[in-house]
Structures are given as C-alpha cells and as structure tokens.
C-alpha cells in the first residue's frame, strides 16, 4: 500500500492495517474528528478539511423546512466505526418484517446477512477483482473513497469538496467532517465504461457507512454509469445517513448515476448530490427512494457549459410513518443548456411524499430549456402529497414547461383489475408499478424486478 | 354447467334499479340482453361481477356458477370461479400492458385446485403464453404494437373492444358478459368480435351479450333474447324478438318516454 503521508508515518512510527478496529465514542467533537483522520492515516489537508467542516457544521442551524429534523439523536450517534467493528447484529435480533422481505424477494443467504448487518463483508471479492482488471487496463479508477485518497491523493485533493463545499448545508458540513467510505471513480478521456459500475461489486461495511462520500470524475468524452444502493431493505441501527455525492462531467462526457435506496424505517436519509456538467456533456440522475423515516434528497445538475444537458428521474414511495421529501434541481448557467426533471411519487397507508424542485436560469442562460413533470399517486384517502416547485428565471429568451398531476387510485381501475382475478392489493400494486414504470424501465433489470416485488409487498401490508 | 341468477334485486344509493331478476345461462348458450337506455343492463353486468358500488339484496337471492353460490364472493373470487366481464368503457391503467395483466390473471388461476379453475384455464409457460397471445391477437387483427402500450390508454373505442375480446378468449371463462361490446365498431370489427363470441360458445362458455342493436346478433346468433325494461325482465324470446325491437323499438315494454 502506498503511503500518502510519510510525515504521519514517521510521527507515529507504525502503519495501521486497513481493518484496524476502532470505534469513536458517541457524539461529535473536535477530538472525535481528529481521531477519525488519525485512524485513517490521512494527509494533513484532509484533517484540516474535516476540522473546518466541523466548525461550519456547528455554525449552521438545523433546517426547518422539508421534513421534521428536530428529533435526530445527534449525541447518541457513533460517527465512525471501522469495518471490523460493524458486525453488530445477530440474525435473530433482526426485525421479522426485514427477514420476511429478504425471503420474499429471494436474495441469497450471504447477501441477506450482509444487508442485515450480521456480517461485515459480502463475498463479492472475486467479481470485483475481475472487473478491476478490465477497468485498470483502460485506466479507469474504481475504489472506495478511503483507498482513493490513499492511492490518488492529488486527484482527490483537486476535486474533493469543490462541487459540494462543506458550507453548502448543515449535513454536507457534517459529512465533510466525519465522512467514511463511498466510491471514488475516475474515467479517463474518451473512455466508455460499457458495464454499469455497481457499488455492489465491492460492497463492504466501509462502503455502507452512514456518512459516505462519493466522487466521480468523468474526463472529456468519456461515459460511465454508476449504480448505488439496493432495493432490498438495509437494516441498520444507525439513525442518520448523511451522504455527499460529487460528480464532474467534463466536456462531451456523460455520467448516469442510479440510486435505489431502501433504508429501514428508523433512518433519516439526508443526502446532497450534485453534478457539474460542462460543455455538451450529459449528466443524469436516477434516484429511487423507498425506505427510511424521512428522506430529504434533491439531486442537482449545474449546467455550466454551453449545450450541457441534465436529466433527473426521481421516484419516491412513502408508506406508513414515512416522509419522502424528494425532487431535483437544475441550475442553468450557460446558454443552450437543457434540463428535464421527472418525478413520480406514491403515498400509501398514511405516508407522505413531497416534490421539491428548483429551476434556476441565470442571465447567462440564453436559449435554455427545461421541462418539469411531477406526478403523484395516492393509494388511499389518508395519505398525503405536496408539490413545492420553485422557478427562478432571469433571462427572457428561454423555454419552461411544467406539468403536475395528482391522482388517486380509482375504484373503477380496481374493479377492472379485480374482475380479471386480481386481489385488491395485487390490483393496487399493479397500478402503482404501472405508474412508476416510465422510471423503472430506466434502471437495471434486477433492481426493477425487486422494486416491483417490494411495491407488491407494500400494498399487501397497507391493505391488511 | 350453468350460471343461475335467482331473484336478484340491486340498488344504487338506496334506489332500487333492478327488481327481482331471475335468469339461467347454460354452457355454450348465447343470451342477448336488450333494453332501452337506463333500463339497468350495465348494473346487472356490474353486480354479477361483484361491483361493490351496488347493493345486492333479497333473501332468496342467489347467484350461482353451477352449484357454487357466488353471491357473497368478492369480484376477484368470482373471476376465479370463471366469470368474465367485458366492459362497456374499459378504463385506462397507465403503465400496465395487456400481456402483463393477462399473465398475472392466468398465473392466479394456477394455484387453486383443478376444480376451481376456469374452463380449460391451464397454467401456461412463458413461451406457450406468448404463442397463444400472438395467435389470438392475430385472430382479432390486433397489431403487436398494441400489446406494448398501456391498457386502454389512447386506444380508439373499437380497439378497446377488441382488446376486451382478446382477454376473454385468452382467459377462457366459464361465463362471459359482454356489455355493449358492439358500440363504436365498424362492420369489419363487428364481424371479428362476433367470431370471438362464437369461438367462446364453441368452447363451452355461456355468454350474455348486452346490446341495443340487432346487428351483432346477426353474426352471433343468440339462443335467447331477453328484454330488460325499467329494471325488470319483461320478456324472453328467440332471435325474432331482436328483429321486432329493431323494427318497433321498446315502446311496447316501457312506460318511460323514450
């Protein structure tokens, strides 16, 4: 292993193995942040970055918009835990509904244990190695963020925190202070990575941390599709997930980033995701949110180069006790930029979804175009859906389209499907799956299949 | 095998719409149900299929498929007993295709024991299903492209009716009710639909054709014609009754101003 920081090696006189067990004490403080950096053997600049971010975090108030963030037990959170220490759950302690879900969507035993937090490592090492071989032949870097920092400190330093600075918001500051895990990807000029890169291939506890940090750099004319998360519910006793995803799409490149998240329903899922899209480049977010207690996530595209394109597809499903506050943002900085935001949300069993979106067109965004379509589906009378679209337009020569619909599953639709032999819950699931189909068809098949099954189960649960 | 409607009275928003209807349809029979607008024909179709909007009452009331009393069964349970309704106005379900719906419907009939299945409704493998779907859709001049589109969305009236018929033939029900399947059809489509009815009849399905017009009955000749007026069955006859209606209308059977 290459050591990026000879000074600290000298200072402490030893080199820690990667899986050195360490768990920070509960709560956040300057010494906790310093300890994290020390145990990861980080360069000085990263330690300073973390400490500055911590100050910013302290200086910012908890947002009072979106969902209710006033009950996050900040002092009760363990902000860092090394991979080997994560083996915390015993199979028999997992909630029954989580185990049932694993069985019903039919995922393999080893994977179940990993997702349930029973084992720290999912044995996909072999697959990962063979993919790595193909990738490195092309000069593509695909590592977890900690290894990325160790092996490519200069590249990381150049871009880290440039798209989403700590000062962006309270939770990006928190992530910047205590981040761990996530992915680091670099695709060289003109290289097309044909297979989607999946975090799944190198899934391990480090990757699944609460404060993941992902950085993707797609150099000019390159292409990569990154897939993160999984449809199976991830059981965690941690109540806060605050990730940061930064992506740079250089001239003529294209990046698609697909996320399906299904955290257990005790989790606050607060993620900042942003792409900087340069001239004639294309940035695409596909973002699916099923689980968690509260999600606040608005993937954004900053269209900074002439002719840049951004697309955001968002699907959110809120069941009992859940609030999905999701949407997207497109900031048109350069002329001839185009964006499209499509949001589909489903509320059932008293769940709540909100579409929250921002379209901003600056003076410099001549001939920019945008289209926003947000559709909400209510499964029953006691669920809720809201729309908060914001448009900030500062140029006259632009084109804006906005469509929003709210519909409720109709008795006529149910009767029709039931007359073909489907139970009410099956009929509802079919209608819901049909409703989100335009987005689901964009995600990899194995995720789509699992997603459909999960919706089926959700509907059965809400009827029963 | 027979579908028995025994003293069925039905109300909607506490207003009685159907009064004491009794009817028996045997396997392989075609019954035409005719009547003026608002006479309760669609209400009968909907309540046979178990639409919960309608309140069904009557102490002696029974709806039976063979010996099985289905009066208290839910819509989907009636469907699994082999009852099928082709809708007058099939509703759109975005994102759901006809093959998707049919596959789900056929898979559902896999599990119950043999005796509970609809007539000849076997569990189909994926390729068998596709083959049958392809053949059947060709038979009804349904372009393959239609099968990729959302159910009943942006189809013409006639196309929707053909897709209803396609479903009926694929599902092979014991008893099928066609609620105004002939409205909005040109003469070629009408013949195609009539052929579907005859095919079902040949395979033993008992059929109720609800219609205003004699024209479909020319191609799919009924064994019986019933007249429903003001919510009551007022007359039963053979196909000549349909001809009489075509000539003279319903004046003879109703007090309503038509």
TrEMBL record, chain A:
Under the heading PANTHER family, the entry gives: FES CLUSTER ASSEMBLY PROTEIN SUF (PTHR30508), UPF0051 PROTEIN ABCI8, CHLOROPLASTIC-RELATED (PTHR30508:SF1)
Its domain of life? Bacteria
NCBIfam families (alphabetical): sufB
A Gene Ontology annotation in the biological process aspect, one of them, is:
iron-sulfur cluster assembly
Look up and give the organism this protein is from.
Answer: Candidatus Gottesmanbacteria bacterium RIFCSPHIGHO2_02_FULL_39_11
The similarity comment for this entry is:
Belongs to the iron-sulfur cluster assembly SufBD family.
Q: Tell me which residues make up the SUF system FeS cluster assembly SufBD N-terminal domain.
A: 129-198
Q: Which residues cross the membrane?
A: none
**Which lineage do the record's taxonomy fields give for this organism?**
Bacteria, Candidatus Gottesmaniibacteriota
The name on file for this protein is Fe-S cluster assembly protein SufB
Question: Which residue ranges does the record assign to the SUF system FeS cluster assembly SufBD core domain?
Answer: 201-435
The record ties this protein, via SUPFAM superfamilies, to: Stabilizer of iron transporter SufD
UniProtKB/TrEMBL annotation, chain B:
**Record-given protein name:** Fe-S cluster assembly ATPase SufC
- Gene Ontology molecular function, alphabetical: ATP binding; ATP hydrolysis activity
- Keyword line: ATP-binding, Nucleotide-binding
Q: Report the family membership.
A: Belongs to the ABC transporter superfamily. Ycf16 family.
Q: Does the keyword Nucleotide-binding apply?
A: yes
**For the ABC transporter domain, which residue ranges apply?**
3-255
Q: Which Pfam families match?
A: ABC_tran (PF00005)
